């Protein structure tokens, strides 16, 4: 079939909207009509050329929601008409990783996913002249139709709006999951969230759900304050307004350091600040942000010797097929909020405007509706 997609032709160039060929689902695969997709900073990161795994031409996008149109041979858990959210972290439920309760990082198709192809080693997308186009994070939601492995789709309830629940495909789950699954924040905790964008705001609402007492937000952009307060931030710090050492300032503000800190910026300098602003003896710092190729984190080992832990999280530690339908329920039941964070709704033709808004710090989430 043919479908419309925003294609990343090469690094650093705007996406090009075009008709592309899409082959139908092979064994174990599913054809999905994407109804809406969010724009995550990770898409911009890969498009910029900073992603060591970034390859072109590719169809980016990993925060979608849609409807199953067709299933390939052997697919048993999904049927046409089912509503689904694509999962860049699949859940096969049989690999060593899925069988280990300590991780959500299903590895059954990680290698081919990272290479931009389906598990059989080929791509379903091509240009009209036959040039293959790579998949991205196993999802490629910047296309009106896409093909995914069955294990990379969460089946969700049919009354949930696509233009909101697409965000559960990455940002919402990552932020809330970082608090609940990864950090396992306790009631009464003190926490600091660095970066109050599409991920950081969801860390805030996760902290509020977990019953944290003090929730400090740190961002260079003052315009994030209003939204951050709405999602639970109790104190705001703009590093540009701090005279002297930022770590010392945060340690003083928390009365000795935070129980939990979260980096949602992808800046390795910020990651160090986050680690060092966590409490001596027991503070835990969770890295969510994705840093460019070649970037490395550093600190004095003494920071760890004296009881701080540095950890990371992908997709908020969530097991997608199990957890994503529950998070959709939380949204539908009013337990979590999504709507105010979707600040812009665009057509596919305007997708590059969404990236401009992100880079200008003017959007939280821009969503493309098909
Ligand atoms: P975003 O652009 O919406 O938000 C980033 C925020 O960080 C902005 O508000 C910006 O002003 C702020 N910021 C930038 N530099 C800063 C600094 N030095 N100090 C304080 N604040 C600063 O991006 P997003 O979509 O929220 O993504 C955030 C990060 O999380 C990105 O690196 C993204 O790739 C990553 N991410 C990781 C996962 C995961 O599973 N680990 C999932 C999704 C996104
Ligand atoms: N490809 C990059 C790393 C990108 C990365 O860390 N991705 C996160 C999800 S970000 C979603 O917005 C992730 O899930 N990582 C685990 C994994 O297996 O990719 C690089 O540096 O090579
Ligand atoms: Zn993302």
TrEMBL record:
Catalytic activity from the UniProt record: S-(hydroxymethyl)glutathione + NADP(+) = S-formylglutathione + NADPH + H(+); a primary alcohol + NAD(+) = an aldehyde + NADH + H(+); S-(hydroxymethyl)glutathione + NAD(+) = S-formylglutathione + NADH + H(+); a secondary alcohol + NAD(+) = a ketone + NADH + H(+)
Superkingdom, taxonomy of origin: Bacteria
PROSITE patterns: ADH_ZINC
EC nos: 1.1.1.284
Keywords per UniProt: Metal-binding, NAD, Oxidoreductase, Zinc
InterPro entries xref list: ADH-like_C, ADH-like_N, ADH_3, ADH_Zn_CS, GroES-like_sf, NAD(P)-bd_dom_sf
Known cofactor(s): Zn(2+)
Domain Alcohol dehydrogenase-like N-terminal residues, every copy: 27-121
Domain Alcohol dehydrogenase-like C-terminal intervals: 198-330
One Pfam family in the UniProt entry: ADH_N
Database matches in PANTHER family: ALCOHOL DEHYDROGENASE, ALCOHOL DEHYDROGENASE CLASS-3
Protein name: S-(hydroxymethyl)glutathione dehydrogenase
Organism for this UniProt entry: Parasedimentitalea maritima
